[in-house]
TrEMBL record:
Similarity comment text for this entry: Belongs to the GMC oxidoreductase family.
Single GO term (MF): flavin adenine dinucleotide binding
The UniProt record lists the keyword Repressor: no
InterPro entries, A to Z: FAD/NAD-bd_sf (IPR036188), GMC_OxRdtase (IPR012132), GMC_OxRdtase_N (IPR000172), GMC_OxRtase_C (IPR007867)
Pfam families, alphabetized: GMC_oxred_C, GMC_oxred_N
Keywords in alphabetical order: FAD, Flavoprotein
Glucose-methanol-choline oxidoreductase N-terminal domain sequence ranges: 138-161, 343-357, 781-795
PANTHER family registered for this protein in UniProt: GLUCOSE-METHANOL-CHOLINE GMC OXIDOREDUCTASE, RE28171P
Transmembrane segments: none
Protein name from the UniProt record: GMC oxidoreductase
Length: 1093
């Protein structure tokens, strides 16, 4: 962390060319310290960098950017697929997380730092050093979603419908909408209640945007175009200047609507939506990789630059890749597919180096051509005029001087709000020039509105744009601390296209990037129209009240032209050519009849098997808006295509249902089902599990690790006990007698033959004796059975003799006591009135629902979900979890008096810790230790069978039990901080137990103290009559459950478990009953008699 802090301070000293005053360092260093803390404690901790990759994976994904992170995350959802994600860069850092510092990551180690080649006959970027445009591209987990201004814009439905109309089946707007929605968690409630349809037109691709989005704007989640619960957080910045409102008002005064431009229609003005979470950047690495970082089938290799796809010359099948890491070339194989997600520059470069590209071009470098395709052609980008500035009089704009202060930093630290949460772009607009289609619904110019201009942070903008000092000093430096605002007018659908070409066979030499800006005349004319609409905007009443006027200082190369002539604006555009780095379309998607297509509509590279491209390079034409959201959508849709292609319906269903037919059946005595009622928090619990990287699965199926809605022994909304399941149906059997209120006190065993022949029991105060012709079976449980055995002379010799009991078989009865134990009262608070409270559900209507419909809250046992998770102490293979969660949509405050009674909780503890919660909305977890290493005992306290035995579970005598539980508790904190629970503002309840006040919350000491205070068991004692082979000195019964040394005596209950099972013990105990009964039948019935029965 010290290196991070040093880097941060170093950055602070270098943000300007003049020495930085000590005061200006305070907010920067404070922010640095915050994110160092965030790095350490953020529940979504960073993915691990796998140093030693396997020789082979099912899928290799090249590039962990806006698409690649999505693809790897989604493919690894199939637990029996192995996925390798190769990233040339490293991980995000504390600087990249701060929205207002988004410019500082560009031209850093996280940036490929590409530049365009010098222009030809159509000049551009003439104000930049060497006439070259800087083209930042992310070289980091999350790719360009770590460098960009976080704008979330999907484009226009007509973009996608045109894709589909051009032969790209499945890519219409309605067919992509689900994929936008799949990722979205939108926090604008009035936007999430509308419907959507299901294919590459706008309607076909919109689903794929949604698939990854996690939108936090509550008013956006009530429409068909947004939803909640995805991985990708989308919301407006929590802070903006008053000029943002003026921008919207100006739009209305120009005749445009203020609308959600990601909704039904795009034309209009809006407050910018962004990929922002808790006031920080939500990159695709944070959204899609951190939550699944613990998946054992996903490996992420950082600082690993892919140099070539390995393709068999004869079969034309991709079988792996070469990459360089730490200066060493390595090779890894792919069993199924290689997926290129290296972006619109990286993917075509890798393809060409691998022999896929234009034949003449590749042969000029001596590269063997495996598929002659127009790779690198069709390059498109959004381009416009930079530095388009307006001056105002009021001190309301965004200036570094105004907002670099301790108070601003503290607002950011404490409230996750304030100016530091703003990426600088406060508003977006989509407008029509005279060159746009007449229907007005496919605008051709986009505005990015900022409440500042280059003068606000000129040194950094100079650096990231490559602006010459002479231009900056002449045009922008004179503005000083002037109050300004600016527009970036961008050409949405340029007719000029460029190319990506190799400059060398060396993969470490950047390719030739030529965007060919403005080679088509209409591009210049459209931009000039868009610039003039901006002048009109400045002249609306909304901006005139601030005395807004255009800044008229010309660029040095344009002084010969009069302001606001076409010549002036064309010169300005060619001087300060500004792109916000949206390169696309260099591996064009198209049908097989398209001579320019590189990939088919399922993103498979033509002519090469098992190779796909899934990133922005596949767009047939650039979308009309920022490209990050569409690229994420392409990742979502591409990953689904791979799943569809590789999983037959049968395999898909088998994976999804955990092969349920093998693990479940109908027709038995015991009814098992989910409760017919649950709170909305149960769904959040499952979503949180997925966001933590676990699968939602039947944990009673093929694999246990994961999250599930609790299954229970429930029948028609009521308890299905073993009495109801197994005794009531056979109550009329004449050969079965059931004697209640009859307490067994002793097994009768012949001293000489050591054969059990009956029992003594007491009923109605009278001792009775009954004989058994064949066997006595003890099923009195893990406490009762060892007590009865010891009272009958079967047990530890020294212990029995101390009570004067004659020893008939010296066995370790009562030893090896095990139980599931955890932390009780582990509570979280939420804001929404959706939890299970006694006040809410104790009503006549609830009772009537139960009586009449056998449904409603009374059918719920309180435990709505179960999960089985792995701490670092669990086996590495990940399939034997060591912590179980019981999830409840309530806590002790919901029914405190009863819980006090059944737990024995002291009044003083309850009144101090839980009573203050009152009627608060809560949920809770019970983290349980599944395989404790501490064991206890059951011992007699008396020869009197009516005096309960000495029960000592010896909890936590083995140190690892405490450490494992603490790990499990912290996974619970991470769960509360997933998007699924954050949408309810979930946070841990931090009131300490009276005996733990000396410890700081979330330290190991705090949790250990809490565990030892509110030690909670859900009463799973086992293993006190251990089953084992004759060679086991601790065994009490053999594998057929016969007591060693005593004939005709068995134990059939939970006490025989050698070790406690990893889960609730009722079902295993019933299983032991079923198996034990079959063993008795086998031992006493000849084969003929068995068949007869």
């Amino acid at each position: 962390m010290s290196n991070l802090l040093g880097n941060f301070v170093g950055l602070a000293f270098n943000v300007g060319s003049n020495p930085v005053a000590v005061a200006s360092l305070v907010p920067l260093v404070a922010a640095g310290l915050t994110f160092i803390r965030y790095w350490n404690y953020d529940p979504e901790t960073h993915p691990s960098n796998v140093e030693n990759v396997f020789k082979e994976y099912d899928f290799i994904v090249v590039g962990a950017g806006s698409a690649g992170a999505v693809v790897a995350s989604r493919l690894s959802e199939i637990s029996n697929w192995t996925v390798l994600l190769l990233e040339a860069g490293g991980d995000e850092n504390e600087i990249s997380d701060i929205p207002s510092m988004c410019g500082y990551t560009q031209m850093s180690e996280m940036d490929w730092m590409y530049q365009t080649s010098p222009p030809g006959d159509s000049p551009y970027c003439l104000a930049m050093i060497g006439d070259r445009c800087n083209w930042p591209r992310g070289k980091v987990l999350g790719g360009s979603s770590v460098l960009n201004a976080m704008i979330y814009a999907r484009g226009n439905r007509y973009d996608y419908d045109k894709w589909a109309a051009d032969g790209n089946t499945g890519w219409s707007y309605e067919e992509v909408l689900p994929y936008f929605l799949k990722s979205e968690d939108n926090r604008n409630p009035y936007l999430t209640k509308t419907r959507y349809h299901n294919g590459w037109s706008y309607e076909e691709v919109l689903p794929y945007f949604l698939k990854s989005e996690d939108n936090r704007n509550p008013y956006l989640t009530k429409t068909r175009y947004h939803k909640e619960g995805g991985f990708l957080t989308v919301q407006e910045s929590p802070w903006r200047t008053p000029l943002a409102v003026a921008f919207l008002q100006a739009g209305q005064q120009l005749g445009y609507e203020v609308r959600d431009c990601n909704g039904e229609k795009q034309t209009g003005f809006m407050i910018a939506q962004g990929t922002i979470r808790r006031g920080t950047r939500c990159s695709t690495a944070k959204a899609f990789l951190r939550p699944v970082r613990n998946r054992r089938n996903l490996h992420i290799a950082m600082y690993a630059q892919t140099t070539k796809v390995l393709i068999n010359d004869h079969s034309k099948r991709a079988y792996g890749v070469k990459f360089v890491r730490n200066g060493k070339e390595q090779m890894v194989r792919a069993r199924r597919e290689v997926v290129l997600s290296a972006g619109a520059i990286g993917s075509p470069q890798i393809l060409m180096l691998s022999g896929v590209g234009p034949k003449d071009h590749l042969e000029s470098f001596g590269i063997k051509v495996l598929s002659d395709l127009k790779v690198g052609h069709n390059l498109q980008d959004h381009v416009g005029l930079g530095g388009y500035t307006f001056i105002i009089d009021d001190p309301i704009s965004f200036t570094r001087k105004r907002y670099q202060s301790v108070s601003v930093v503290m607002e950011y630290l404490l409230k996750e709000s304030g100016p530091l949460t703003s990426p600088g772009i406060e508003g977006l607009a989509f407008v029509n020039t005279k060159y746009a289609p007449e229907h007005g619904e496919w605008p051709d110019v986009q505005y990015h509105f900022a409440a500042s201009s280059i003068n606000a942070d000129g040194d950094n903008i100079k650096k990231i744009t490559g602006l010459r000092d002479s231009v900056y000093n002449t045009v922008y430096k004179p503005l000083g601390d002037s109050e300004t605002w600016s527009l970036l007018p961008l050409l949405l659908r340029p007719k000029s296209t460029g190319w990506i070409r190799l400059r060398s066979k060396n993969p470490f030499i950047y390719p030739d990037i030529n965007p060919n800006y403005f080679t088509h005349r209409e591009d210049i004319l459209t931009l000039i129209e868009g610039i003039r609409i901006g002048l009109n905007m400045s002249d609306t009443p909304a901006f005139r009240r601030f005395n807004s006027r255009p800044y008229k200082m010309p660029f040095p190369g344009c002084r010969q032209y009069e302001f606001d002539t076409d010549e002036y604006w064309e010169c300005s555009i060619r001087q300060f050519t500004f792109t916000i780095y949206h390169p696309t379309s260099t591996n064009k998607m198209g049908p097989s009849t398209d001579p320019d297509a590189v990939v088919d509509p399922r993103l498979r590279v033509y002519g090469i098997k098992n190779l796909r491209v899934i990133d922005a390079s596949i767009m047939p034409t650039i979308v009309s808006g920022n490209t990050n959201a569409p690229t994420i959508m392409i990742g979502e849709k591409g990953a689904d295509m791979i799943k569809e292609d590789w999983l037959s319906l049968r395999k898909m269903l088998a994976i999804l249902d955990g092969h349920t037919k093998k693990y479940h059946k109908e027709g038995g005595f015991l009814t098992v089902q989910e409760s017919p009622w649950r709170t909305p928090l149960a769904v959040a619990f499952l979503q949180a599990g997925q966001q933590l990287g676990y699968e939602v699965r039947d944990c009673n199926g093929e694999k246990q690790t994961g999250f599930m809605i609790a299954q229970g022994t429930i029948r028609r909304g009521t308890r299905c006990s073993t009495a109801k399941a197994f005794l009531r149906p056979v109550r009329n059997r004449r050969n079965l007698h059931i004697a209640m209120y009859a307490q067994t006190t002793k097994v009768l065993i012949n001293d000489h033959s050591k054969r059990a022949y009956g029992v003594k029991f007491v009923r109605n105060g009278k001792e009775q004796m009954v004989r058994a012709r064949r066997e006595v079976v003890l099923s009195a449980g893990a406490i009762g059975s060892p007590q009865i055995l010891m009272l009958s002379g079967v047990g530890p010799k020294d212990h029995l003799e101390s009570f004067g009991i004659k020893v008939l078989s010296d066995l370790k009865v009562g030893h090896n006591l095990q139980d599931h134990v955890g932390l009780g009262g582990y509570t979280f608070i939420i804001d929404d009135p959706i939890s299970f409270t006694r006040k809410r559900y104790q009503s006549v209507s609830v009772v009537m629902e139960y009586l009449l419909k056998e449904s409603g809250p009374l059918t719920s046992p309180g435990i709505e979900g179960l999960a089985f998770v792995n701490t670092k102490y669990a086996p590495e293979h990940g399939e034997w979890p060591d912590v179980q969660y019981h999830f409840a949509a309530s806590s002790i405050n919901a029914d405190g008096d009863n819980i006090k009674k059944i737990t024995g909780l002291r009044d003083s503890v309850y009144n101090t810790v839980y009573k203050p919660l009152g009627d608060s909305e809560t949920w809770s977890l019970l983290p349980l230790l599944l395989r404790p290493k501490s064991t206890g005992w059951i011992r007699l306290r008396s020869k009197n069978p009516f005096i309960y035995p000495d029960i000592n579970p010896n909890y936590f005598t083995h140190r690892e039990d405490i450490l494992t539980l603490i790990e499990g508790i912290r996974i619970g904190l991470n769960m509360s901080d997933t998007p699924a629970f954050r949408r309810f503002n979930s946070r841990p309840y931090k009131m300490p137990f009276p005996g733990c006040r000396q410890y700081e919350f979330d330290t190991d000491e705090y949790w250990e103290c809490s565990i030892r205070q509110f030690t909670f068991t859900i009463y799973h004692p086992t293993s006190t009559n251990k089953m084992g082979p004759s060679t086991d000195p601790d065994a009490v019964v053999d594998p057929r459950l016969r007591v060693y040394g005593i004939k005709n005596l068995r134990v059939i209950d939970a006490s025989i478990m050698p070790t406690i099972v990893s889960g609730n013990t009722n079902a295993p105990t019933i299983m032991i009953g079923e198996k034990g009964a079959d063993m008795i039948k086998e031992d006493w019935l000849s084969l003929r008699k068995m068949l007869k029965v």
